[in-house]
Specification:
heterodimer, A: 366 residues, ten-stranded mixed sheet, B: 40 strands, binds adenosine-5'-diphosphate, binds magnesium ion
């Protein structure tokens, strides 16, 4: 194991041992507090280009298995841990974290005081960082990090190039892929939906021709304001079909309806976020993974209302359209990883579709 | 809170005396609950018969009843207090069972007392094995194939159907009492009979054995809005088959993927919702290491040992939150007390690894059956925190205070590989060390996995630790190696052995190389939110989060894991010391490692360091905090034993100084002291060799009392009647104790009294003298002690007082001192002096109203008793009431442990009884201790020749009371010859009715048995005593106890007596 280090744009340096790939790479450094589910997190397209710090110290204990991926190929830029387990133990274990990251050319650093690092990010906010060998001069690096232009193409990177179909006999769902997690697809197929996954920049006409029952705006990576060219599509679809947005999809839905979105200081990343449903007064455990949030105040000028808020910081976690059958949530109802308490939202989505269809039937006949 | 508006007064039931399976954790949860309820403005009435608890302090509840925890007495309390509601879920199994009886007997309805938190129905569906099974079927949650049985035959039928191995689990018992694994018909018969006898509803579950699965626990909380969360999940290092209470447990689970985890989490939440519990609940599951298949093992619809552990492991105070939920608050409204900024509705996330290790009593019960199974045997536990598993484990071993700081036990090093493999198969309390030893002998992870089924994840980690030992040996004084070893939790002492240098050399080297620990905060949220919790653990990493304040600080050392001889009493004293320190305006810092106790609740002290109690770990904290000094006298022998090492490193020991401690504990110095003060003591000698021992015993004259020096709870202490016994004893003890001499004392028979005193160096006050029912020879901790004394003369009292004052002055005691005396025809002999808080502090404090630990702490910090209006002497005695402290044992959990009372302490807990007269107090105390006092029935007498004369009067009195007398041959003849009708019973083995059968068939309610002499286990006497225990029959081994019980029965019954025939006088 050779000596590696993480250099942050504010000049702080964390030294440790390298594992996985040995390449030099930069990215936005964020921390995630989930105790389990590292495989899902590593392969979550929403983490595209990010360097993720795991606060739980032992990562890799149960190895990497063939089932729990959230995408075909992970696209995160780095993984920072306290300890990377070299002898995983679980009946589904196929390979160690180290060898998996090597194969996918993702660098990792272990032996880091991850609690110190996480607190640093909490206090100073997420920032850019670079994984490199120890010994190299860091001044130029810091300079470079400060002036590095922000990447704007994460959605392009993670979205599918061609549409594809996951056939089913149930409702026809068009899933706009901004970097979809397999978890969402699992939830839909579990409910035997007929899912057509289309690229985020797919043409409106083409979508209409697919005669969907409902639209799902998927999760995805990065800053929503870099994909504003999908605004029109969302506005059109919103008026025609029941719509459900998740994560980035939720933010884009909000933007399309005229709300604003802002970057959070260090975001929500973990499996223990309490979200309060305002109508029922019920609070649930959710998994979250977002660095941007919908600006509550900005909703006043729109046709949207807040349905759910984060119990602790009261940030917007769910919104609903006042006139159209459309709602969205900031958290991950598909969990994977994390608590599965919110998966019923997919039923509500399908129920919403049924209701609107019945309504349309009635309208036809009168 | 709307629906609970009308509720103002709430009755909380505690868990009573401490027994294996139900220990200090319920003092912690109970105390939290009471405080939480008071916070919410309720009036709290508490019932708990355990005087050694913080929760029975008048400051914790508004009204405290230390009455027996029986329906009869609780009904009295309810009638008197008229509470609006009852909180049954804080008192362990005892609390639940009582609540159920109160409901079933209609008491709750009659006085319309509302049951809070968990409905009776829920309790039954969780506790009743049959109802539970059908609930699981409803929820289609899997449980192992099983059959509910009420007779042994039913069990055998089931066995015929599905075959062996099977496991028997009695209903409504705690700590798996009476349960066990059966590999054949004989075992099944025996264990089922035993289990049925011990189950209050005479019901057992016979179940397919799923030993070898992973055992996992989930701590769940739910509120009335049906909002439910998992506070903590824990994985047992030991697979299913070893009771969780006896397993090494790790939090969070280490080898579960998110899918495994979510599956079990969902199941746990489903169950608590189905039971509609409003509060906390513990779900135990077993998961197949090779598939997603899992089973529900059991559900505890209440706070538990595990919930206490989870609270300390995460920082999330389950009992406190559960209590608030019980009165109608909801999780989304309660603030998370740790962060102070977020809400209680969230699932704590850890950024460290927690290890819990059980503490076993086999250092005292050397003949006990060490095999671990489904019945709990540990008396206490420790918790340790690290940033990796290895560190956490190694800190855990240090915390156990079992004479090793490493994965190594001396007594295992000279076993052969085969012997070790046999030990491994036995899965006994030392298995962890057996595994390590086998690894040193080259056994592979796979080989060990094959036998133990312990997850390879853990075995690989153990192996890496053994490897590191080798690396270290080959790399003396390497800074890099030292760093590495420290990160993996190796102690200086451990490294010193491997480098073959002194601890001080390692310590110095470490200091010069500046390899010192940092302290991290336990904050429930892995640093995501800012927290103020003053709760820290050490680790070898970069950032230190524990900022010493500028205030003057005092460091208090706790007493570590609960064990026989060092129980919850010491935690009680520690907590009071901490509170006193705060009162005096200092910052109070506590170091301790027991997750069950109140002292490790971070809201008690200004700062809590959850750490092992070794010189090294304490020094590290001292380097950081720079306290004025350290208080060791409240932490039992654990803390006292650290004094020398600490002072050697320049630490100020506050209170009584080191020389004094040494004078009291070093035999020769102690003798000299008493000589100078011309006080009597049983004459005796300290010897180092066999030869001297024989000489000494001869010159003193048998019987003599022998023991190693420097022990608590009279460990390895025996009364020896002749030279053979002496030699046998020496062979047993010498080798391990070559460090310290063996003490040989003249065995004095007489009345034993105990004194606790407080001194400031000038004034010495004695809040009270306690007199023991049992004569000297029965350990003070196992005797029934009485306050105020009933039998000793004023002159004896005077002598005790004078002796105490003399000794306190001579030793310049600052703080507490405990002295035990033997009074023999009005001469007072000094038995021992403990320059520290003793077992009797809480009892005495509560009945005399003198808050002794508090006062003592103030003396330690320089306050003068005079200024508090005291002057030397005995404080005025209580005249209104008599109080007794009655020991409680856990023999039913400890197979093949001899129950005879002797100089070795055996009790695990105590109960209190107080009333106007001694008899009434005894009645309550005995009842509270779990003894039933039948007004008539039958008694079996079988006593040693030396006791026959004395036994006669007892036989008479039983007869007069109308009891049927049974006796073994010798005893029967003796009684018969003196004209008392008695039925002779045959020896063991001979055809029924024989001495054992009348116990098994529960013909008798009492057995009076005294020890023939020496301790040959497996003797007939031993059989008789064990049989009594297994069948829940009181077996009394001291005639003094019997005498006391007779007094009680006599004073509570009327006997038929013929008129005396006056004529015949002429
Ligand atoms: N079917 C089974 N096969 C093997 N071991 C079992 C089985 N059921 C329980 N056990 C073991 O017995 C222990 C005690 O059982 P449990 O029902 O939890 O009793 P308690 O009420 O004392 O906690 C468990 O911790 C588990 O290790
Ligand atoms: N010389 C003696 N004669 C009779 N009984 C004794 C004598 N020494 C000790 N004992 C009995 O043994 C018990 C334990 O002895 P003690 O010195 O108090 O050890 P410990 O440190 O365990 O308290 C005492 O409570 C007393 O009943
Ligand atoms: Mg259990
Ligand atoms: Mg004693």
């Amino acid at each position: 194991m050779n000596k590696r280090q993480l250099v942050l744009e504010d000049g702080t340096v964390y030294k440790g041992e390298g594992f996985g790939s040995q390449r030099k790479i930069s990215g936005e450094v964020v921390f995630n507090t989930s105790m389990t589910g590292y495989q899902e997190i590593i392969s979550d397209p929403s983490n595209c280009n990010q360097i993720v710090v795991m606060t739980y110290p032992l990562i890799g204990n149960y190895g990497i298995n063939r089932d729990d991926f959230e995408s075909v190929a992970p696209c995160m830029n780095g993984l920072i841990v306290k300890e990377a387990c070299s002898y995983p133990s679980n009946f589904r274990n196929e390979e160690s974290l180290d060898s998996f990251l090597k194969v996918h050319d993702i660098p990792g650093i272990s032996g880091i005081d991850t609690r110190k690092l996480a607190k640093h990010l909490r206090i100073h906010g997420t920032m850019r960082g670079l994984i490199m060998d120890q010994g190299e001069a860091i001044e130029p690096i810091i300079h470079a990090l400060k002036n590095m232009p922000e990447r704007k193409d994460q959605v392009k990177q993670t979205s599918t190039l061609k549409p594809y179909i996951i056939p089913g006999r149930g409702k026809r769902i068009i899933l706009i892929d901004f970097g979809v997690k397999h978890g969402i697809l699992r939830e839909l197929t579990k409910r035997n939906c007929h899912v057509t996954v289309v690229p985020y920049d797919y043409g409106i006409e083409q979508i209409l021709r697919l005669k969907p029952d409902g639209i799902l705006l998927s999760n995805g990576p990065g800053n929503p304001t870099y994909v504003l060219d999908v605004m029109e599509m969302i506005q059109v679809l919103l008026k025609k079909y029941p719509l459900f947005g998740i994560g980035l999809g939720h933010q884009l839905f909000a933007l399309a309806c005229g709300a604003d979105v802002k970057k959070m200081k260090y975001g929500h990343r973990g499996g223990n976020y309490a979200v309060k449903h305002l109508e029922s007064g019920q609070t649930h455990m959710t998994t979250q993974n977002h660095g941007y949030e919908v600006v509550k105040e900005s909703l006043q000028k729109t046709d949207l209302r807040v349905t759910e808020i984060s119990l602790n910081d009261e940030s917007v976690e769910g919104i609903k359209h006042n006139t159209y059958d459309a709602f969205s949530v900031q958290y991950q109802p598909e969990s994977s990883p994390g608590p599965e308490d919110m998966s019923f939202l997919f039923d509500e989505f399908l129920q919403m579709i049924t209701n609107s269809q019945e309504k349309n039937e009635v309208d036809k006949h009168v | 809170m709307c629906e609970h508006k009308q509720i103002k007064k709430i009755l909380v039931i505690g868990s009573g005396p401490i027994v294996i399976g139900q220990a200090a954790e319920f003092d912690y949860s109970g105390t939290q609950a009471c405080q939480a309820l008071k916070e919410e403005g309720y009036t709290v009435v508490l019932a708990n018969s355990n005087p050694a608890t913080i929760m029975t302090d008048h400051t914790v509840a508004d009204r405290v009843y230390m009455e027996p925890l029986t329906v009869k007495f609780l009904t009295k309390i309810i009638r008197k207090e008229q509470p609006d509601a009852l909180l049954p879920t804080m008192g362990g199994q005892t609390g639940l069972n009582l609540a159920m009886s109160l409901e079933e007997t209609g008491i709750l309805e009659k006085y319309n007392v509302k049951l809070l938190g968990t409905s009776l129905d829920a309790i039954q569906r969780a506790e009743d094995r049959e109802k539970f099974r059908s609930l699981m079927e409803q929820l289609n949650e899997p449980v192992p194939e099983s059959r509910i049985v009420h007779t042994v035959d039913e069990a055998l039928d089931f066995a015929d159907e599905i075959g062996y191995p099977l496991i028997v689990r009695p209903a409504y018992t705690l700590g798996g009492t009476g349960g066990g694994m059966c590999y054949n018909k004989k075992e099944l018969q025996e264990i089922t009979r035993n289990g049925l006898a011990l189950s209050p509803v005479n019901q057992c579950l016979v179940e397919r054995n799923i030993a070898g699965f992973k055992e996992v626990e989930y701590e769940v909380i739910r509120d009335k809005k049906d909002q439910a969360i998992v506070v903590c999940h824990m994985e047992n290092f030991d697979p299913v088959g070893i009771h969780t209470g006896d397993s090494i447990v790790v939090a969070p689970s280490q080898t579960l993927s998110d899918r495994d985890h979510q599956m079990l989490r969902n199941a746990s939440l489903k169950i608590i919702r189905a039971l509609e519990i409003e509060g906390g609940c513990n779900v135990q599951l077993a998961i197949d290491p090779n598939s997603f298949e899992y089973y529900i093992i059991e559900v505890n619809p209440r706070v538990s040992r595990s919930s206490a552990l989870a609270s300390k492991a995460t920082g999330y105070p389950i009992a406190k939150i559960a209590a608030k939920i019980a009165v109608g608050l909801t999780l989304d409204k309660i603030i998370n007390p740790v962060t102070g900024t977020t809400y209680a509705l969230f699932e704590p996330t850890l950024d460290y690894v927690v290890t819990k290790m059980p503490r076993f009593p086999f250092d005292k019960f050397t003949t006990g059956d060490r095999k671990l199974g489904t019945q709990m045997k540990a008396t206490g536990e420790i918790m340790s925190i690290g940033r990796n598993f290895e560190e956490s484990l190694m800190k855990g071993i240090r915390s156990l205070d079992i004479g090793t700081e490493e994965l190594r036990l001396k007594n295992l090093t000279h076993l052969t590989e085969d012997e070790l493999m046999d030990r491994l198969l036995d899965k006994d309390d030392e298995r962890l060390f057996v595994i390590a030893e086998l690894m040193r002998r080259g056994k592979t992870v796979e080989q060990l996995f094959a036998v133990t089924k312990i997850d390879r994840f853990f075995l690989v980690k153990l192996e890496s630790l053994i490897r590191l030992e080798e690396e270290l040996m080959n790399d003396k004084f390497s800074k890099e190696m030292l760093k590495k070893a420290k990160k993996l939790g190796f102690s200086d002492e451990h490294i010193a052995r491997l480098w073959d240098v002194t601890v001080d050399e390692v310590y110095e080297f470490r200091q010069t190389k500046q390899i010192t620990p940092v302290y991290k905060m336990v904050d429930t949220c892995a640093g995501e939110f800012e927290s103020e919790t003053p709760y820290f653990y050490s680790t070898y990493e970069e950032e230190n989060e524990s900022e010493p304040s500028t205030r003057k600080k005092i460091l208090v050392l706790g007493s570590g894991p609960i064990r026989i001889g060092q129980g919850i009493e010491f935690d009680y004293a520690t907590v009071h010391s901490v509170l006193a320190i705060k009162e005096m305006g200092y910052e109070a810092i506590i170091m301790n490692n027991n997750p069950e106790t109140v002292s490790t609740d971070f809201s008690i002290s200004d700062k809590l360091y959850f750490e092992p109690l070794t010189v090294e770990d304490v020094m590290d904290v001292i380097h950081l905090e720079q306290p004025e000094g350290v208080i060791v006298q409240f932490g039992g022998q654990t803390a006292i034993n650290l004094a020398a090492g600490l002072e050697k490193r320049g630490v100020t020991i506050l209170g009584t100084n080191l020389e004094a401690i040494d004078q009291a504990e070093d035999r020769d110095k102690f003798e000299l002291l008493l000589q100078n003060l011309d006080l009597l003591r049983p004459n005796g000698k300290a010897v180092l060799t066999k030869g001297d021992a024989i000489q000494a015993a001869k010159s003193i004259g048998y019987p003599v009392l022998v023991r190693p020096s420097y022990v608590i709870g009279g460990s390895r202490m025996e009364i020896v009647h002749d030279e053979d016994e002496l030699l046998a004893y020496i062979d047993k003890t010498m080798d391990e104790n070559n460090k310290h001499p063996i003490l040989i004392d003249q065995y004095l028979t007489g009345m034993e009294v105990e004194v606790d005193a407080i001194s400031d160096g000038e004034t010495t006050i004695i809040p009270g003298i306690m007199e023991h029912i049992e004569r000297a020879g029965v350990h003070s901790g196992d005797s029934i002690s009485v306050y105020p004394p009933q039998r000793i003369s004023d002159s004896a009292k005077q002598q005790c007082m004078e002796a105490t004052v003399k000794i306190a002055e001579a030793l310049e005691i600052k703080g507490l001192i405990n002295i035990q005396f033997i009074i023999r025809n009005d001469d007072v002999y000094v038995l021992e002096v403990n320059p520290r808080a003793s077992r009797t502090i809480p009892f005495l404090s509560k009945i005399t109203g003198v808050t002794m630990a508090n006062l003592a702490t103030k003396c330690i910090l320089g306050a003068k008793l005079k200024d508090h209006g005291y002057e030397s002497g005995i404080l005025p005695e209580e005249t209104e009431q008599v109080s007794v402290k009655v020991p409680v044992f856990s023999f039913e959990k400890l197979r093949s442990v001899d129950t005879t009372l002797g100089p070795e302490m055996k009790s695990t807990g105590e109960a209190i009884g107080y009333d106007k007269t001694l008899e009434k107090a005894l009645y309550k105390g005995l009842l509270a201790s779990g003894l039933s006092l039948p007004q008539q029935g039958a008694v079996l007498l079988t006593v040693a020749d030396k006791d026959k004369e004395e036994m006669l009067d007892i036989a008479k009195r039983f007869y007069e009371l109308g009891f049927q007398l049974y006796a073994t041959e010798g005893t029967a003849k003796f009684v018969q010859d003196r004209g008392i009708p008695v039925t002779k019973v045959e020896k063991i083995g001979s055809d029924k009715p024989n001495v054992v059968s009348i116990i098994k068939d529960e013909v008798v309610q009492f057995v009076v048995n005294t020890l023939t002499s020496g301790k040959q286990p497996r003797s007939d006497g031993f059989m008789i005593r064990r049989q009594s225990v297994e069948h829940g029959i009181a077996c009394l081994t001291s005639l003094d106890t019997v005498d006391a019980i007779l007094n009680v029965i006599e004073s509570t019954t009327f006997v038929a007596k013929p008129m005396a025939n006056k004529e015949s006088a002429f």
